Hints:
There is one protein chain. This protein is α/β, with parallel strands linked by helices. It contains 18 helices and 18 strands. The longest helix has 22 residues, at 76-97.
Amino acid sequence: MESREPLAAARRGQLPMPRATPGFGTDQTDPGQAMTDKVTAERKAAGDLGEIGKLIGRTAPSPLGRLRLSRPGMNPISCAREDVRRCISRARFRASDRSTMRPGSHGGASGRPLRGCMRIEKKILICGAGIAGPACAYWLHKYGYSVVVVEKAQTFRDGGQNVDIKGAGQQVIKMMGLAEAIEAKDTLERGQKYLDAAGAVIAVFPKGAVGTLTSDFEILRGDFARVLFEATKGDCEYRFGTSVTNLDDSGAGMSVTFDDGRAEDFELVICGEGMSSSTRAKVLAQETRFRYLGAYMAFFKIPRRPEDDNWAYSVNGVGGTFITLRPGNEKETTVLITFLRKDHDIEGDNSAARRDLLLKALKGRGTVADRITAELDMVQDFYFGPMSQVRASAWSKGRFVLIGDAAYCPTPFTGAGTALALVGAYVLAGEIARGESYAEAFAAYERLVRPYVEASQDQLSPRFIRLLHAKTWFGISVTHLAQKFFSSGGVQKVLRPSAAKREKGVAEDFVFPQY
């Protein structure tokens, strides 16, 4: 009989007496007054069945009038019961929090939270203002949560390399309504050309070709982060020059101490600091391991020359060095260098050792390498590190959860890290919004996203990296033949999917839950 109660109540235009609603926190208001306020507000919210009809996709006041079967495989009666039950749950949520919500600060245009059990005054902390953090902040604010984003850098960082927004990441960008803003920052890269050591063109892979480095959305990391920052800075609080020194999960909330000595309580802490996250090490150090792929990588910018155009240029060098120049902006060209190294033995800030390794990898590798060597002393924004993946056995512990590269960096060499971050941000925020508890939300997030992450990470292995980094002149010659073969018109005609198939591939890259 209990399963029919919500449907019967909706037919009568009444609601049953309220029951305790599970949530992420506890209610400290007077129980008697809270019950009175809740009953009054619930009956007022439930009196207009037209509102319930809108929420569950019906145009008739009768709960069994015209149904929208949004869940395949569910019969109409079950669908109706579930939808009405959800509407009543939302009405209860609105009633319980009506006295504490700030006008105009909620996810919906009408000023009420979209769904879930956590009240609006409860705060979520996000560590890291790169890609994953602001993307998650966008969705959390949309669902009605108060978000604080802390970043250890003193100011917003505009630097960084080209990032590819592939597959499912493109869908998230469109759902966020940011496609136009990103296209305005596009590097206009036309495709990829492979060169020999003397600089002669070996093969050409235009944008859209099978095997090209160039994706539909090409944008500098800093420009993309700026788009996300601009989309969220008015709704979320950003604190630059701030890092976490201690986390205390008391069970009722997370007490966070920052480097300025200030302590603050949050409902949840989301860590999106990147693969070298110091905050992750405070909570999930034992659960996190790094998979070294047998190579080091460096990326930075050099001054743009008149001969630089909107193509990416790649060169295979003897000894297992791979060099790529890509369009940056009007004044800069971006550089990516990867080279084989058996041992993962360069740690910390040993800048002299890193520079020596890089110069050794460039020496005698041709005209492009000579140009980079000549410009190296003037480089300011410089990254050097192992080509490694982050593989965490668990993405959460208590009220703490990982996102983006901090949880599942696939290495920048894959070009998939941005898509993983965007998908993870969408799913984590959505599950927090609809979950009955944070534990349930975190478990669902990991269950949905982990297979997608592992499929992406498994595309690379140490053996595959060695294959891409030919070490001998003979190996490089064979690589050039393969590049010529796959870039030929006939082969591309066979391999290249139609526009319709490409769209289908993007749509099927990840099956998005609807929140």
